[in-house]
Amino acid sequence: VDSVGKNLGSLNLQHATPAVELCTQLFPTHLNATKLRHFHRPTIKKVVHGKVKPGEYHPVQSIQKIAETRAAEREKERQAYGGGEMFYMRRLQDLSGLDSDLVLAEYCEQYPPLLNQIGMATRVKNYYKKKPGKQDNPPMLEYGEISYAHTSPFQADMLPGEILQAFENHMFRAPIFHHQLLLTDFLILRTKSNYHIRNVKNIFTIGQECPLQEVPGPNSKRANIFARDFLQAYIFRLFWKSRDKPPRIKMEDVRKAFPQNAENSIRKRLKMSSDFKRTGGVHCNWWVLRSDFRLPSQEEIRQLVTPEQCCAYYSMQAAEQRLKDAGYGEKVLFAAVDDEAADENDTSKIEDEVKCAPWHTTKAYLDSLKGKCWLQLRGFSDPTGCGEGFSYVRVSNKPNAREAEPETIQTKKMVTGTDADLRRLHLKEAKKILNKFGVSDSHVRNLSRWQIIDIVRTMSTARARDGEDGAAMAKFARGNRYSQMEYQEKYKEDCRKIFEVQNKSLSTNHLTSTDNETSGEEDSDVD
Amino acid sequence: MSTTTITTKKEKNEDQFELEQQFVLRMPPGEHANRLHDLIECGDEKIRERLFIDLNPERRRGRVKFDDTVFKATLYDLPCITETYKTFDRKTLYKIADVAQVLVCRLPGDLSSSDDDDDDDETGKRSNTNVTTISDGGNEKKKKEKDKEKKFQWPHGLTPPLKNVRKRRFRKVARQKTQDRDEMEQ
Lengths: 527, 186
Prior knowledge:
The complex is a heterodimer of chains A (527) and B (186). Chain A has 17 helices and 15 strands. Chain A is α+β, with helices and mostly antiparallel strands. In chain A, the strands form 4 sheets. In chain A, strands 2, 3, 4, 5, 6, 9 and 10 form a 7-stranded mixed β-sheet that branches. In chain A, strands 1-8-7 form a 3-stranded mixed β-sheet, with no helix packed on it. In chain A, helix 4 (221-241) packs antiparallel against helix 7 (298-304), helix 12 packs across helix 15 and helix 13 packs across helix 15. Chain B has one domain. Chain B has 7 helices and 5 strands. The chains are: A alpha+beta (527), B alpha+beta (186). Chains A and B meet through strand 1, helix 3, strand 2, strand 3 and strand 7 of A and helix 1, strand 1, helix 2, helix 3 and strand 2 of B.
């Protein structure tokens, strides 16, 4: 589990240029409640101005010609630049779906904590665990590149010879499972004036995300700093786009893009770099860049706010909207964030549903990688609600503070002190105990004192835990204070089981479920 | 996701390019689907003379005409977030769209799923599964809207393991009942 957060090998990820530049068509500056409710679930809009109006038939086009032309253009360009590897995603129109190979990806989580905006890139990695000793060749898959997993990049260890495909980017890693799109299904691409149709063969089911980035909490310091920088970057870019000398912009243009911001906060940002001209001819009512201010370069602006930070911020906003819609007031939401400063393991005051919010799950997950806490694993935050996913809710990594099973609490009483000191246990006594446990004399004869004591301790612990009635011997059992290792083993085992159940379920090709099968209550979002 | 209004003239020229909106067209299994699949596969430019769509997304209704057959179609919301990626090397994928809806075509004469005219009927059937203890008019209206919304929620994901995912796999949201809902909704 320790290695999950680490990037195994370099990722070498380059988003399409419009995404890197946070082009507003891909990275909106403001999302209203409706947009947040449809976060990454956009509905097709009725075309009013354009050809494909409802009420009449519109021809559906093949993409063949366009695809061929664009492929030829790309190849020509590649040759012109010496035939090496090219980066083709430089403009918005490069994000068209009318050419190249397309794959679909379907998330198994209803609300994955982190999602790419259009234009962002992701890598397909095929993690392979080598078999020991002999030279072996990993299986070749249609998509992705091989990455040797010495330690598992997921929540559970991989088996030698095992291969696991994953989506990987700077925000998350998630196992993916290759499927074929049904032969009845076609992809329609619609613009205001045209319908196009394509066959898409490949679709991946995406397993539960392993976040690599934290989602900021509502109104948290990180969220507020982001909002500030996002606004600042927008202003800088506006200045870059100004054709006037000196560059100048209008307050109105910023306000339209950031309607949620108070005019004051915008003015504060503008003041950093420019002066407002109340009077004075051509510049009247413009904010004019100060001559002594060096406008940050495009590269510097890119550093200021990244696409990944935008995604995290959007995710926070969408989750906040969902919680509000489910009846959770701001008081409840913000209480959660205040708690961050307090004891990180004391989250008892937070409502369970709020604990499922991405700012809690991503933080819990990342903290667990650092060894700061453990995860609940099974529980209310499991996005599947049926034990096929992990509950990213923090629990203490100190066994004593964990909700221990009743049996182990019993043993705890018998631990140290009294007459159960193993150091004072006579060899003869120890041998007697072992005899009682069914260990024969011949076996014990060749062992040293401490080896024998070790067996006494191990067996006593095991018996006490199994609830057997060796009460007399239970006094030699190790209590919770000593069983960190065992807890860790059990924890790892739990991780493995959940991970296996998920992978088995998501790789299945059979339509096993019936239409009416449900998990738990029929429909709990009925008030 | 659509965009914020673009403000400056220069920006308009630079930033605006109409990206395609995407949705899934689902044909009834069998002969028509296979024929269409093969037609697209061989890159036949004549598709435009054989396949036609008329879609009213707001009313969630459509007609699809393929050769001589007219299919009635309904636009449903898919349960899972589904993304389209584009790739040149099969290693790096670029996201180009969110696919959130599926246009399901029915064979002429197939009345098994919701038809254009039996809206109320359908709603009645489905609401049987819900608790019906609501008496006052305001809630009644809300419930009706909700039922209508639900009617267009497709239960299945596109991949086999996500069949019936809404009921079988999605975690249920624990709603807060003490808070006044109206207060929260701006």
